[in-house]
Write a structure and sequence with these properties.
Layout: E1 12-17, H1 33-43, E2 48-53, H2 59-66, E3 70-74, E4 84-85, E5 90-92, E6 94-99, E7 117-120, H3 123-126, H4 129-135, E8 141-144, H5 147-155, E9 161-165, H6 166-178, E10 190-193, E11 199-205, H7 208-223, H8 226-233
Parallel strand pairs: 1-2, 1-3, 7-8, 7-9
Antiparallel strand pairs: 3-11, 4-11, 5-11, 6-9, 6-10
């Protein structure tokens, strides 16, 4: 008879994650860039991770009321909630994407003013006052909850530019290029314009020991190449 191996309760980390935002978090499949990076980092300390997926605006309240070990996506200003923050471990980078054939030269946000643009939902609230000023009276600007639709609008030529996170764009484009029914429309060359400041996110934990273990794990998987392998696996 095979011996039963029981994992000690303390070897499990219970973390709060947001709802699906592929490729960062894919709640239905219990995977994603951030999910796998965190699992790999804690594996260096022989710890397993369980994720609970909830809207991000509930995370801090649920964390304190229900005894979770941490939250996976926080900004540095949230440390006043008594959470021990890790070092930044994931970057969200919004960009402008255009087709190469359009030959558009974009140096700042104002260069978008006369273009047909499709952005992610709530971009005017998220990307700041200067961005909002450019588009608040534009008839050629739209925001979409369905980011796959953004990709379709760009590659079909119905908009001049799309605005979204660079990894979301690459992930969705990779999916489109794998679909045989697309008849090559998504194989057009494109340009990425970095007009926005990247946002670095940390994880937050109930104590300093966990945050230090996480930081050490992140350094280890960056050093051995597995961090980049996880990123690349969602973009090809």
């Amino acid at each position: 008879m095979q011996p039963v191996v029981v994992c000690a309760q303390e070897s499990y980390i219970e973390l709060l994650a947001g709802l699906s935002k592929p490729p960062f978090v894919m709640a239905e499949e219990d995977k994603g860039m951030q999910i796998e990076i965190i699992e790999a980092a804690f594996a260096k300390s022989n710890k397993f991770v369980r994720f609970t997926y909830l809207p991000m605006n509930r995370h801090l309240d649920v964390f304190h009321s229900r005894g979770f070990d941490g939250i996976i996506t926080l900004e540095s200003h949230e440390k006043e909630w008594g959470i021990s923050l890790s070092q930044p471990y994931i970057i969200y980078q919004n960009v402008v994407v255009t087709l190469t054939d359009s030959n558009l030269k974009l140096n700042d946000i104002n260069d978008l003013a006369n273009l047909k643009v499709a952005a992610f939902q709530n971009a005017t609230r998220f990307l700041g006052e200067s961005y909002n000023t450019v588009f608040k009276h534009s008839d050629n600007y739209t925001e979409l909850a369905d980011q796959q639709s953004q990709i379709g609008l760009l590659f079909s030529g119905r908009v001049d530019a799309v605005i979204l996170d660079v990894n979301i764009f690459k992930h969705l484009l990779a999916i489109k290029r794998q679909e045989k029914s697309n008849a090559g429309i998504y194989n057009k060359a494109y340009e990425i314009h970095f007009l926005f400041t990247p946002r670095a996110y940390t994880a937050g934990f109930k104590n300093k020991e966990l945050s230090q273990q996480f930081d050490h794990g992140i350094k280890a998987i960056m050093a051995d190449g597995s961090y980049q392998q996880i990123i690349d696996s969602y973009l090809q």
